[in-house]
Amino acid sequence: MPFNRPGILFVMTGASGVGKDTIRQAALPSIDELFFSVSATTRPRRPGEVHGKQYFFYEKAAFERLLAEDALLEHAEYVDDFYGTPAAPVKEALAGGRDVLLELELVGAREVKRRVPEAVMIFIAPPSLSELERRLRGRGTDSESRIQKRLARAREEIRAVKEFGYVVVNDTLPTAVRDFCSIIYAERARTALLSRRDIANFLREL
Ligand code: 5GP
Q1: Helix, strand or coil for residue 122?
Q2: Cα angle 189-192-193, degrees, rounded to a multiple of 5
Q3: What is the 102 CA–ligand 1 centroid distance (Å)?
Q4: Contacts for 79 with CB less than 8 Å, ≥ 6 apart
Q5: Domain 9-37+99-204, CATH number (from 3.90.1210.10, 3.90.180.10, 3.40.50.300, 3.40.50.1360)
Q6: Probe ligand 1: pick from 104, 141, 150, 170, max atoms within 8 Å of CB?
Q7: Residue ranges of the domains in the chain?
Q8: pTM higher than 0.85, yes or no?
Q9: Are 40 and 55 in contact (CB under 8 A)?
Q10: Quick check: CB of 39 below 6 Å from ligand 1?
């Protein structure tokens, strides 16, 4: 049934190290027309990360300017650094009927839900806390104190799982990607997104 629907805002949240990036990167090629919003951050660049690709990397002063200009849809402090979503590209995509995916920690996810109640909230859970710790250490990108802070934050986030409409357990990547894609496609197929005018136009053709 051909119809125009508004863009859907998807929010993906889950503990650091749970595999959000991996799921997204594996899923995006098989999901058409999903715009991924690149965040701004003050955290140091990891090897291989490119400005404008994984993040827009800013000094604290520049990040504060974005805040002062009200250029961020949401922002949060996470393990000694700031992260935020540039508002303009998200608003533009949604206004043009395109779906948008945000990848956020819990504070930012809550802020988006408050501002955009119809946002679709997806929580990515680890199969266990010990597996999460193993993955964080295996990544080799964080100091021991940062790993401890990330694990503490992970417990807090998992406690909030019921605030999300969906949960995907990242046990094996193929099943997590399958579940993630299913959520996106099921949400796109909701009849609540159909407008009465489009239905009327469709019927007029017969
Ligand atoms: P990392 O330093 O591992 O790249 O990201 C740390 C955490 O910040 C992750 O949980 C990630 O999803 C979250 N994050 C990334 N971008 C944003 C953003 O724009 N806003 C918020 N609130 N969290 C973000």
Answers
A1: strand
A2: 65
A3: 9
A4: 16, 146, 149, 150, 153
A5: 3.40.50.300
A6: 104
A7: 9-37+99-204
A8: yes
A9: yes
A10: yes
Ligand 1 contacts CB of residue 16 (under 6 A): yes
70-83 confidence digits (pLDDT tens): 999 999 999 889 99
Residue nearest to atom 8 of ligand 1 (CA): 105
Ranges of the chain whose pLDDT falls below 50? none
Name, in order, each residue with C-beta under 8 angstroms of 72's C-beta and a sequence gap of 6 or more.
40, 66, 84, 85, 86, 87
What tokens were used for 154? 């992970």
How do beta strands 99-104 and 9-14 pair? parallel
Separation in Å, CA 48 to CA 51, 82, 176: 10, 20, 25
Q: Is 68 annotated as a binding residue?
A: no
